[in-house]
Amino acid sequence: MKELVEIIAKSLVDSPEMVVVTETTDADTITIELKVAPEDMGKVIGKQGRIAKSIRTVVKAAASKGDKKVIVDIK
Question: At the top level of its lineage, which domain of life is listed (predicted)?
Answer without folding.
Answer: Bacteria
